[in-house]
Amino acid sequence: MQKFEKKDLKKKSVNLSEWYTDIILKAELADYAPVKGCMVIRPYGFAVWEKIQTFLDGLIKEKGVGNAYFPLLIPEKFLNLEKEHIEGFSPHLAVVTIAGGENLKEKLVIRPTSETVMYQMYKQWFHSWRDLPVLINQWNNVIRWEKRTYLFLRTSEFLWQEGHCAHLTEGENREMVLWGIKAYEKTYAELLAMYGLIGIKSQTEKFAGAKETYSIELLMPDGKALQGGTSHDLGQNFSKAFDWTVLNKEGKKIHPWQNSWGFTTRSIGGLVMVNGDDNGLILPPRVAPIQTVIIAISSGENQKLAEYIEKIQGILEKSGVRVKSDNNITASVGRRFNDWEVKGVPIRLEIGQKEMEKESVTFARRDNFDKGTVGIDQIEIKIKAILGEMQSLAYENHRKFTLDNTYKADSYDQFKKIMTGKRGLIRAFWCEDKECEAKIKAETKATTRILPLDAKKEKGKCIYCTKAAVNRWYFAQAY
RNA sequence: CGGGGUGUGGCGCAGUUGGAUUAGCGCGCCGAGUUUGGGACUCGGAGGCCGGCGGUUCGAGUCCGCCCACCCCGACCA
């Protein structure tokens, strides 16, 4: 571990973006890689990703979707088949032109997303209505060359899952699209303790090649929104582009209806931004790789203490708490306290002579620094209670923050005022004309984020052109 | 791609308007010992052709030119 002084930690309260980068490096979640725009996810950070994977993969399997693996390299011509798709992605592609020491006759694109390779196979595999639905997901990495990068939030390579399903009917397909975005909402809410808003994207903001895109938007502490996952209704765009048909019950050729949905390591970036303070990270217990750390307080080798700690650790492990004991007595107590605080471990247990004598432990909460003592017989109950409380409090805090920073704007002046101030989410009428959207973006940096799933049609006037509008869209500056 | 910034031991930096010798400092690292309830201390060590190339000069970390890399801010994006 690279040691550093507490005074050298950047302050979240002063500059979110500096704090964010600093804390990711110092908590050892990730580091910059030798390749521009790429990052190394370190074991601690990867453990967080594994928690996310486990949770989300569970939901995916529960839905009957199976995991598979498709190749990293995609023949360029596959991408060219769907016009909007290639237009959207071509500026971001990394392309292999030489392999085995020879110039390739056909260039290979490193996948930016796998629609095209996967559907090429679907077309070969599935020919009958009996083969539908196709329910396939893969966990992998993709590369999208970005001009400007940011640890976790925007790197040229990132990890994700991409689900790609195909259905016989439009309605069934749509049901799956919505299932996808709701699975992400659940992951954020229940695992990552974050409150997100789900809804549909505008035509300019949707995925390249999709008919419709649904997104979950999360509000960050600086008032900017993070797109935390998307689920795309691809309609028949790809099946038509690839000329994939199946025979329906009537023996008629139909193009399957398709959807794709992705959730990335970006979510870790959002998690960090939302959950932390000037002392470092605060991981919600359910995603925390280590939920409780035991700090041995001792002036030297102490066999009895070691045994006592082992006993406590055993109790917690047995009850399913992820616990780690830090017996590194060559480092001072304060040093160890702080190191684990930076890493965001929810609960610290201090165990020394005092605790041993009283058959107890001292606990300290990472989120509010509450400290107390609990007897060994009560420890399991106490720790679990605190973990549960921290989890729900974290979610509640983010929910409250999001709602407190969501505004209704009925005039463009008001809109601009909010966007030049502390920002946040703005609900405003928009006529759904691309030009108004573009101008609002140019003038305020705010883009349409979503139209909520449960939005009710109202009578209103476009915030920009004042023409009649029926929907209040969410606007925000975006990451 | 536009704007800004930074490259000097592992990390963070200093290095006056060009002048010396052995390029300093803090942290970290290694060894020995003493310590441990909020970032310990003492002593002793290891570790650098100052991003690269070229130029000016008796003399360049320092001046000039070109290049490279990375970071931050904008446009693109999960």
From TrEMBL:
<dbReference type="InterPro" id="IPR004499">
    <property type="entry name" value="Pro-tRNA-ligase_IIa_arc-type"/>
</dbReference>
<dbReference type="InterPro" id="IPR006195">
    <property type="entry name" value="aa-tRNA-synth_II"/>
</dbReference>
<comment type="function">
    <text>Catalyzes the attachment of proline to tRNA(Pro) in a two-step reaction: proline is first activated by ATP to form Pro-AMP and then transferred to the acceptor end of tRNA(Pro).</text>
</comment>
<keyword id="KW-0436">Ligase</keyword>
<dbReference type="Pfam" id="PF03129">
    <property type="entry name" value="HGTP_anticodon"/>
</dbReference>
<dbReference type="GO" id="GO:0006433">
    <property type="term" value="P:prolyl-tRNA aminoacylation"/>
</dbReference>
<dbReference type="InterPro" id="IPR045864">
    <property type="entry name" value="aa-tRNA-synth_II/BPL/LPL"/>
</dbReference>
<dbReference type="InterPro" id="IPR036621">
    <property type="entry name" value="Anticodon-bd_dom_sf"/>
</dbReference>
<keyword id="KW-0030">Aminoacyl-tRNA synthetase</keyword>
<dbReference type="InterPro" id="IPR033721">
    <property type="entry name" value="ProRS_core_arch_euk"/>
</dbReference>
<dbReference type="InterPro" id="IPR002314">
    <property type="entry name" value="aa-tRNA-synt_IIb"/>
</dbReference>
<dbReference type="InterPro" id="IPR004154">
    <property type="entry name" value="Anticodon-bd"/>
</dbReference>
<dbReference type="GO" id="GO:0005737">
    <property type="term" value="C:cytoplasm"/>
</dbReference>
<feature type="domain" description="Aminoacyl-transfer RNA synthetases class-II family profile">
    <location>
        <begin position="42"/>
        <end position="284"/>
    </location>
</feature>
<protein>
    <recommendedName>
        <fullName>Proline--tRNA ligase</fullName>
        <ecNumber>6.1.1.15</ecNumber>
    </recommendedName>
</protein>
<dbReference type="InterPro" id="IPR016061">
    <property type="entry name" value="Pro-tRNA_ligase_II_C"/>
</dbReference>
<comment type="subunit">
    <text>Homodimer.</text>
</comment>
<keyword id="KW-0963">Cytoplasm</keyword>
<dbReference type="GO" id="GO:0017101">
    <property type="term" value="C:aminoacyl-tRNA synthetase multienzyme complex"/>
</dbReference>
<dbReference type="InterPro" id="IPR017449">
    <property type="entry name" value="Pro-tRNA_synth_II"/>
</dbReference>
<dbReference type="Pfam" id="PF00587">
    <property type="entry name" value="tRNA-synt_2b"/>
</dbReference>
<dbReference type="Pfam" id="PF09180">
    <property type="entry name" value="ProRS-C_1"/>
</dbReference>
<dbReference type="InterPro" id="IPR002316">
    <property type="entry name" value="Pro-tRNA-ligase_IIa"/>
</dbReference>
<dbReference type="GO" id="GO:0004827">
    <property type="term" value="F:proline-tRNA ligase activity"/>
</dbReference>
<dbReference type="GO" id="GO:0005524">
    <property type="term" value="F:ATP binding"/>
</dbReference>
<keyword id="KW-0067">ATP-binding</keyword>
<keyword id="KW-0648">Protein biosynthesis</keyword>
<keyword id="KW-0547">Nucleotide-binding</keyword>
<comment type="similarity">
    <text>Belongs to the class-II aminoacyl-tRNA synthetase family. ProS type 3 subfamily.</text>
</comment>
